[in-house]
Prior knowledge:
This protein has helices at residues 8-14, 20-50, 69-85, 91-109, 128-156, 162-185, 192-214, 220-244, 252-273. By secondary structure, it is mostly helical. The longest helix has 31 residues, at 20-50.
Amino acid sequence: MPRPTLTPREAEAHLVHLGGHARETYRWLRLGLLAALGAVVTSGLIEWSRAPGHCLQGSLSAYYWTPVRPMLVGGLMAFALGLIAVRGSTDAEDTALNLAGLFAPIVAVVPVRPSTGCSSVPEPVLPVAAGVDNNIRALLVIAGVVVAAVAVALVLHRVRIASVWTGWALAAATVAGFAGWALGAGGTMEPAAHYVAAAGVFGCLVVVVLLNARYTPGSRLTTVYLALAAAMVLALLLQGLHLLVPAFGWTLLATETALVALFAVFWLVQTLELWDAGVRPARAGVQGRSSP
């Protein structure tokens, strides 16, 4: 059955307001995600200023091979944790955030080879295959424990909301899929797993933006969210063209930077929209428990 469209006044009445300390924590968590992305970008700019001739890597991920590496990996890990911890206003949005949070650590720990020799220091010699194997297994063990714990919690609380269980099933399938890949690949997941995970992150984030456009009917924010989603889809298409036809001319660095910037704008706008409320209406299943 289609959901009824709420007027702005009705939507305001359905807002879920958080109390004092919880609201403050929620605000800082949301702003912390922007800080994590900002730290990675700032580190990249510092590296650019020191690189010979102000040269650039071919992608954000290629900065793994420069002094940016600790900030890149740490920032993506913090970003992933924040996406999972933040409660989406609907079960669908929450699922998309959770899945993006599952994909992001894989982007961090499975590197791509730099497309250029551009770095302010000589490229480090790293045990990449051993590192990927170790880190992926550690991530999958923890993710598996969390997914299992969530299933137990849902059973104990007798949650029968289909959208909640759908979100759990998608998370479990993601973990199981990468676990099977890791066991079968024998430590040779790079760089394919990186690209799969990156596509998963950006795809899920586009879904989040589109859902917010859907759940702000009759509002100027609908136009803003739709415009941001359209720009993100365009950036993804340009990425695909570059990977399929390298001579197309768009570098991954340009499209990845655009995607990160567009999502940051969305996240800031949404944070300001929900500054006092926390999450939006209960009409699409806020009562569910799809986050750990």
